[in-house]
Amino acid sequence: MRSETLTLVLVNLAGIMERADESLLPAVYKEVGAALHADPTRLGSLTLFRSIVQSSCYPIAAYLAIRHNRVHIIAYGAFLWAAATFLVAFSSTFFQWRVACQGSYVAHSQLDGIWSMALILFTEEFSLPWICCTSNFLIFNEGLYVLGKVAYKGKDSIYGMENHVAVSRALNGIGLAIVAPAIQSLVADSTDDNNRGTAFGWLQLTSNFGSVIGGFLSLMMAPVTFMGIHGWRISFHLVGIISVTVGILVRIFAHDPHFPDGGADISDQVRTKSFHSEVKDLFQEAKAVVKIPSFQIIVAQGVTGSFPWSAMSFAAMWLELSGFSHGKTAFLIGMFVLATSLGGLFGGRMGDKLSKRLPNSGRIILSQISSASGIPLAAVLLLALPSNASTLAMHGLFLFITGFCISWNAPATNNPIFAEIVPEKSRTSIYALDRSFESVLSSFAPPVVGILAQHVYGYKPVPEGSEDITTDRGNAASLAKALYTAIGIPLALCCLIYSFLYFTYPRDRERAQMDALIESELQTLELDGWPLRGEDSHVELEAKELYTEEQSVIEMDYEVRNSLDLDDDSDEKILLYRQLTFANLGDSTAGEK
């Protein structure tokens, strides 16, 4: 098997385990809620804690992917999320997380100690990722303590009961955050504009297969007890073990095309920039990406478009309250995830085909169809179908149709467009920034669903030991209404926001192509031995706000004639061609303005 093919296979395998890990907890909300005596609001807060930490770590992922070997980052991220998954499985029985209860002073002193060593250790392969991860963990730990005290009115005992699970989920978010942008940028670098949507469709398909594994495994094992250990805990252990195995395989066999010699750090090849200058360059690159209009629009729609997917973490709980058994619930969730997998592959292929026929609008049209179709389909699924186990076939059918139709946006539009509107070197940054911005707000979806269900639609927590079926059915209806509120409204906004891409996407794509052409031309001049630096020649490239509406100006002034053999007919032709090329670029930029 070729090295590139093996790398893509292993990267997709890592994507499978990433999604499997994410889907474990939502699938057993009911069992975890019973173990912690937690209502939907608190259950949703567990996912919120993980998502907040995960979002805050995406910028770190961008830095790591630029400086370090991306396959190594994926491997170490797998090790980290596996360790956190083990902690969740052990929580409330073997470990009591008390570090957050030590208060602000300890957290600050630990942070000071960590960052005082950063400048000494940052050249080590492991140091920077673990410095960042540990620091984010301590920041979150302190914040969790304060939020817990406020939310539970100063009751340390209640906070301590759930702290260990929440902190473990936060650590889990760090591992997941540093992996996702590296995977996406590797896929983007391995494809071109004509097949990139299909490649992202395959990535979505394999990743969703991981969601099936995680959700199905935890649901099927939830009612089982082995040697006194609850089945949902065993499922967490199994996913953790497999994640470690995948991380080892990726670390040994996968290869990053930016590191053909297998180096672990860019400093193995070039040691010219200081840590401070690299961080400064990263912020400048992020600033340039954020200024791209199409990026702003896709992030805006992504915030609303991701909200329904986060809200769907309550789908398993809604089905169980409706009367479906663990096995039937696992089957229905599996049908939905299978549909989103096939829908992603279909959407990616259709996006590639439409982009050839309608290069400026094809991908956008497809995404608007996808987001708009989810509104009536979700209404039928959540509000029209009866809440009882006798409608398994109808629930399965509408879950499949809904999942197939609403899953086109990322592979068909968002991910391919991101790769087209920035240079290749900025792809990891744009994917990391997108995940960061979108995840911050969409992570509030589970708590919002819980609050709506309890305080707006009348969800009533069932007392411990009660088996009141009537209460369960009423709670299922309340949860369904809350889910539709968190799905229908965001999808409508998502469809509307996509409309602005018709005006910005063509211009941003052409600007990125022009930037790539200029960079390629300058590199060619250097390779040909033309004097681009020094006292005898001067080349000035002024790109004021390259990704905004302002004009890019290229000024070239050659004072040395001896370096060029103008008597040579071929040299004269080459010079004329390049002068015309740069002139055309300047004219096209001025025309855009």
Automatic annotation (TrEMBL):
Residues covered by the Major facilitator superfamily (MFS) profile domain:
7-509
According to its UniProt record, where is this protein located?
Membrane
**Which keywords appear in this protein's UniProt record, sorted alphabetically?**
Membrane, Transmembrane, Transmembrane helix, Transport
Keyword Transmembrane (UniProt): yes
Membrane topology, from the record: Multi-pass membrane protein
A GO cellular component entry from the record: membrane
* Primary localisation category: membrane
> Which range is the signal sequence, renumbered to this chain?
none
Keyword Transmembrane helix attributed:
yes
The family database entries (PROSITE patterns) matched by this protein are listed as: MFS
Gene Ontology MF, one: transmembrane transporter activity
Q: Where are the transmembrane segments?
A: 73-95, 127-148, 169-187, 199-222, 234-254, 331-351, 363-385, 392-410, 482-505
Family, similarity comment: Belongs to the major facilitator superfamily. Spinster (TC 2.A.1.49) family.
Protein name, per record:
Major facilitator superfamily (MFS) profile domain-containing protein
> What is the originating organism of this protein?
Thlaspi arvense
